[in-house]
Design a protein that fits this description.
- By secondary structure, the protein is of the alpha/beta class.
- The chain folds into 2 domains: 232 residues, NAD(P)-binding Rossmann-like Domain (Rossmann fold, 3-Layer(aba) Sandwich); 63 residues.
- It has 10 helices and 14 strands.
- The strands form 2 sheets. The chain has an 8-stranded mixed β-sheet with strand order 3-2-1-4-5-6-7-8, sandwiched between helices.
- Helix 3 packs parallel to helix 4 and helix 3 packs across helix 8.
- The chain binds zinc ion.
- The site of zinc ion has 8 residues, from helix 7.
C-alpha cells in the first residue's frame, strides 16, 4: 500500500519497485542536497542507504537543509538524519558514517549500486570520480550555488567522467561564498537527482547531458559532453585516489569555511583552555568556539575569508 502510487506510475511498476527495494544508495554529504535526496529515496522505498557526512548541524543550515530541526543543532548530520529517516520509513536500512572521506578511507565507506554526490568541495568530487571509475559504480554529480544548480550522470565505461568536464579544482563553478543560496535551488536539484537515480537503479534511459538550471531565470541548459581524450582519470591515472593531490587545507563551499586536519584534541581540556577566552559549546562529537568547530576526529572547521586567515585563527586558539 505504501508505494501504491509509485507502482501505478507506469515507468516504475511492481518490477521497478522491487529493484528499488533491493538497491543500496550511498549519499556523500548530508547538507541541503544530500538530506533532501535521502528523504526522497527513503519515501520512495530504497532498501539501504549509506549516509556519509563530516559536519554537525548549524543554525545557518536550517534555512535550506529541510530534514533537520532546531533539536538537531550541534549534533552530527548523519546521525540526526538517520533518526528522522527511520521515523519516515522504519523498514529502511541505514548505515550512517560520521566521517571525513579522503583517499585513505574512501574504499571502505563509499559503496553500493549508486552514489549521489552531495558534497561541498571539488577535491572530494575528483576523488569520488576516480574511486567510482575504479570500482565501476555509477554516480550523480550535483552542485548548487545561488539560484543555479548542475547535475550530471556519470556511468563508468558509458559516459564521460567528471574529470573529462572539469580539469582542476580551481577553475570551475564560481566562488561559493559570495553568492549565497536560495533554499529552492537544492530542492529542485535533489528532485532531479533522485529522479535520475530511480532511472539508473531501475535500468532505464537516463539524462546524458550536463544539466544546468537557473531557477531565478527559469532557464534550463543541456550541454552535450564528450569524453576528453586527454582525461587522465579515464586512462586509469588516479592522482586523487593515490594521494598525490591530497591537501591539508580544504575550502568548503557555501559556509565560508576551511577545513584543517591533524589537531588531536582532548575536547574537555581544549574546552577548559578556551573557556577562559569566550563561550564554549561542547558535546560528544565536537566543540564550538567563536569561528571554530573542532571535531573529535582531529578536523577543525574555521570560518574565515581566506586560507591565510583560517590558519591564523587556528594557531591563535589551538597553537602551542
Ligand atoms: Zn574522464
Amino acid at each position: 500500500m505504501r508505494f501504491q502510487q509509485q507502482i501505478i506510475f507506469e515507468k516504475i511498476g511492481a518490477e521497478g519497485q522491487k529493484k528499488l527495494q533491493k538497491s543500496t544508495v550511498c549519499i556523500l554529504g548530508l547538507g541541503a542536497l544530500g538530506s533532501r535526496a535521502a528523504e526522497l529515496l527513503t519515501r520512495a522505498g530504497i532498501g539501504t542507504l549509506i549516509l556519509i557526512d563530516r559536519d554537525v548541524v548549524e543554525l545557518l543550515n536550517l534555512q535550506r537543509q529541510t530534514l533537520y530541526t532546531e533539536q538537531d543543532l550541534n549534533l552530527p548530520k548523519v546521525y540526526q538524519a538517520a533518526i528522522h529517516l527511520k521515523q519516515i520509513n522504519s523498514k529502511i536500512k541505514i548505515k550512517p558514517f560520521f566521517k571525513d572521506i579522503n583517499y585513505t578511507n574512501i574504499e571502505s565507506f563509499v559503496k553500493g549500486d549508486l552514489v549521489l554526490d552531495c558534497t561541498d568541495n571539488l577535491e572530494t568530487r575528483f576523488l569520488l570520480n576516480e574511486h567510482c571509475l575504479e570500482k565501476e559504480i555509477p554516480w550523480i554529480f550535483s552542485s548548487v550555488l545561488g539560484s543555479i544548480g548542475m547535475l550530471f550522470n556519470i556511468i563508468p565505461k558509458k559516459t564521460p567522467c567528471f574529470s573529462c568536464i572539469f580539469s582542476e579544482p580551481e577553475d570551475i563553478l564560481g566562488t561559493c561564498d559570495t553568492e549565497g543560496i536560495l533554499n529552492t535551488t537544492p530542492t529542485l536539484i535533489s528532485a532531479l537527482q533522485v529522479t535520475e537515480a530511480i532511472k539508473i537503479l531501475t535500468k532505464q534511459p537516463y539524462a546524458k547531458e550536463l544539466l544546468y538550471y537557473d531557477l531565478w531565470k527559469h532557464k534550463l541548459t543541456k550541454t552535450k559532453i564528450k569524453k576528453n581524450p586527454k582525461c587522465n582519470a579515464c586512462k586509469g591515472k588516479y592522482s586523487y585516489l593515490n594521494g598525490e593531490k591530497n591537501k591539508e587545507v580544504i575550502k568548503l563551499c557555501g559556509t565560508n569555511s576551511y577545513q584543517l586536519k591533524g589537531y588531536k584534541p582532548d575536547l574537555k581540556k581544549t574546552a577548559e583552555k578556551l573557556e577562559k577566552i569566550d563561550k564554549v559549546i561542547v558535546n560528544d562529537y565536537c566543540l564550538l568556539f567563536k569561528e571554530l568547530t573542532i571535531l573529535k576526529d582531529g578536523r577543525v572547521l574555521i570560518k574565515a575569508k581566506s586560507e591565510k586567515e583560517a590558519k591564523e585563527l587556528y594557531s591563535k586558539y589551538l597553537g602551542d
